[in-house]
Every structure is written in C-alpha cells, then in structure tokens.
Amino acid sequence: MSDIDAIERDTLAKVAAASDIAALEEVRVAALGKKGVVSERMKTLGAMAPEERKAAGAALNVLKDRIAAAIDAKKQKLEDAALDERLRTEKVDVTLPAPSSPRGRIHPVTQVTEEIVAIFSAMGFDVAEGPDIEDDFHNFTALNFPADHPAREMHDTFFFPPKQDGSRMLLRTHTSPVQIRTMMTRKPPIRIIIPGRTFRCDSDQTHTPMFHQVEGLVIDRETHMGHLKGTLEAFCKAFFEVDAVKTRFRPHYFPFTEPSAEMDIGYERAGNEIRIGQGAKWMEILGSGMVHPNVLRNCGLDPDEYQGFAFGMGIDRLAMLKYGIPDLRDFFAADARWLEHYGFDPADQPNLSTALSH
What we know:
Oligomer: single chain
Radius of gyration: 33 Å
Helix content: 25-40%
Order of helices and strands: HHHHHEEHEHEEHEEEEHEHH
Strand content: 15-25%
Low-confidence stretches: none
C-alpha cells in the first residue's frame, strides 16, 4: 500500500506541475498508458494469492480512478486558461473598413440567385424551399404527369433503388415539388419563388447533371395571364437592368399548366456581346402558364374558386446570358482562376435601390 501511496503522490504532483496539454499527456501515458506505472502494477496481480490479489486490485483501481480524475480536472483548467488567453489576445476591430480587395469571391450562381430573390421580394414574393430527394407523387403525379410520360424514364431522372413496396425515391428534376408542398400546406393567396438545385441525366456545354432553377407560383381567386405577363416583363427589365425589353409568348405544352407558354426576349449580338432589350432576334428564356386545374385538385384546392400562374427558368443559364459565361460546365470545375474572373465582390449585395450588379 505504501508503494501505491507513493505512486499517487508522485503522479498527482506531476499533474499539478504540468504547464500545458502536451506535458499533461506525458504524465497520463507514464501513469496509465500500456507501459505506465499503474498498468505495470496491474500485471503483477496474477502472481498474487487470491486474497492479496483482491485487496491490491481494488487499491490499484482506486488509484487509477483518482489519477484519471486529476488529469481530467487539470486538462479542463488548461483548456479554460488557453481559451481565456485567446480571447484576451485575439481581437477583431469591427470598426475597421473592409479590405479594398476581398480574398473571397461570390460565385455567379449565388450572385444571380440573390439578384432574383431581391427582385421578386420587392414584388411581394416569399422564398420557399424543399428537399432535393423527392417521391414520385410530388415530383410527377401531383403535377399532372401521365404514367407513361418520358420524363419519368431513367434517361431523364436519377432514381434510387426500389423500396420493398416497389416505390422509388428520386433526385428532383425541377423545383416544382415545392409548389405542391406549399399548396398542400398553405391556404391561398400564395405568392412564392423557389430557387434550388435540380438533377437530370444530361451533360454538355449548356447542360449539367446538377443545375439550378427558380420557379414562381401565384395562387389567388383573380389571377390571369395578364398578371403573369406583367410579372415576367417587370422581372426581365430589372434583372437585365434595361429600361425596356421586348417579349413574346409562344404556345407550348407543360403537363402542369394550361394554357402554357414559352417566353422569348428580344436581343441583338454585337461581336461576342449579347444585348438584351434591343435588336430583332428572339431568345427563349423561360416556361410559364396558368396552373392546370388537375394540379389544383391534387393539392386540395377547388379550381372553380382558385386559379394562378407558374413559371420556371434556369439560374445557371441566366448567369451565362447576363455575364457572358460561355460554358456551363465551368460553373462546377472549382477553378480559382475562373472564379476570380467571373466572381463578385462579397461586399456588394444585390439591391434595387442602387444596382443589382456592380
């Protein structure tokens, strides 16, 4: 027992004298490690008589617990002292001006998303979000996709392995499922935009397997195509920062809207530059239409009481168009040089009072 008492006194003295975490760890290993003094004493128990082994084992376990508790307490004191020292010495003067050349850059997708949110927020739209992984009902069925619609096939959609009941989850192919979730949980009037990631089996200069969309939805008792046209024209003027923009709406087909239309904007090309709002050429920019009565019914809304419009556009494509970016694949190449060239100053936040982009 005197030997155990001596080990305890010596070890606790070393614990108290440890000036940092590294020194304390050396004490712990010397005492409780595999070849530590306490562990070596534990190895001698097998050669003792039963009664002696019982008493010595209990004493060694008490010693081990006391040393471990002392080490834990000392470690906490050292960590608290280190934190106090950091808080004392590491200070940031928040009154200093921001650096003239920030090291980080805002990605064009983030920039354009914030510009879109700023524009529609000023129109009274809320921002809604939803899961990237969806089920068939929210992604297809509730949106009036027929059972044999080609968008359900593997060449367009990333499906997960079937569940035991045969159903399959999938990576959402558009942000429209958030429209369904919103209509099923909120009473009209509804006025939302839905920016987010979407996924389709496609990859070339203007398509990637993962891309970004923003969709809009308005549901009310008195909403018509004139409201849709006015909203989208106001958006285009604000986004492209022009005084006027020529638009035309061409009949189209989407399962979830009726009537449906694609919206074109007028432009002209001057060298490698595309100028929006002038010229005689037309460019398709988004899809839109009045929400199909079947979609309203699937969400528990009476189409005889409510109607509304929806639209959707690609955020990545808008960024390419506005900022002259030639290849969509570069958006996801993680090239610091590309981001330095096309990125935005983080101190310049998009707003309508001055300018969206700087």
